[in-house]
Amino acid sequence: MMIRVNPEVQNALDNNQPVVALESTIISHGMPYPQNVKTALAVEAILRERGVIPATIGIIDGVGVVGMTPEEIEEFGKRQGIIKVSRRDLPVIMSKKLWGATTVATTMIFAAKAGIEVFVTGGIGGVHRGAQETFDISADLQELAHTNVSVVCAGAKAILDLPLTLEYLETFGVPVLGYKTEELAAFYTRTSGLKLDYKMDSEKEIAEAIVAKREMGLNGGVLIANPIPEEYAMNKEEMDKAINAAIDEMNKMGVHGKESTPFLLAKIKELTGGKSLDSNIQLVFNNAKVGAEIAKEICLLKR
């Protein structure tokens, strides 16, 4: 068995009830224990309060679990040495029966296999700064190009090259929809200066666009950029300074590949005195609220 869907999740899917997928990298690599578990369960609670079934996805003993139990999430948060798993890692992690934390890309893969349309995360990966030389581009972007899952996020992580990330998404035909914004959200901050093609004023409008894409048989994801709430947004100048300092240190230490994002996020947390982590948690909560309403609207359109 390569995939196990929680019976509660399967029952909701079978009965056209809203389900939202959640990733597990934020638990194992995003923040320390016990804050990671507390945050993961709080996001699930936000979804449940809105009548939506949460499906936190992770790999346990080589099986993709869609809808981890609170006990499994607790173990995930405490366990040392859980591997961050992207598409290329899946065959090895699963064949060796290991534990793995799903990135945006792998969460999308399992969500699509289970039939879950909406996935809520913090920020997607993208084109890294200096990618013209390093070719360091997150597998998340290719997954968005090919896998039929809609991703609600606070834009791409601010540590990335945001203009090139947007260009890449355009090249591969991924619709990027701004929720009540005309600009790409930049994770910790609400604005990036990068204009989006489509501003959507309601979750219903977004759901209609997703359903239209599916009915046309156009493969690939939809990206919904939902800015962090004003009261939790960080000062752009302060963030830019911290990001640049973190990138300089990463380059000096020779950190690259899938280790770069956890390194940078940890360094930025240190440089901002923990404020960036608080912002990160709040933007995930906010994305869960919007993702819940989109999932509900899609179910209504399918009736």
TrEMBL record:
Any GO CC annotation of this UniProt entry: cytoplasm
GO molecular function: hydrolase activity, acting on glycosyl bonds; metal ion binding; pseudouridylate synthase activity
Alphabetical UniProt keywords: Glycosidase, Hydrolase, Lyase, Manganese, Metal-binding
Alphabetized InterPro entries for the sequence: Indigdn_synthA-like (IPR022830), PsuG (IPR007342)
One Pfam family hit: Indigoidine_A
Keyword Ubl conjugation: no
EC number assigned by the record: 4.2.1.70
Protein name in UniProt: Pseudouridine-5'-phosphate glycosidase
Stretches of the chain forming a coiled coil according to its record: none
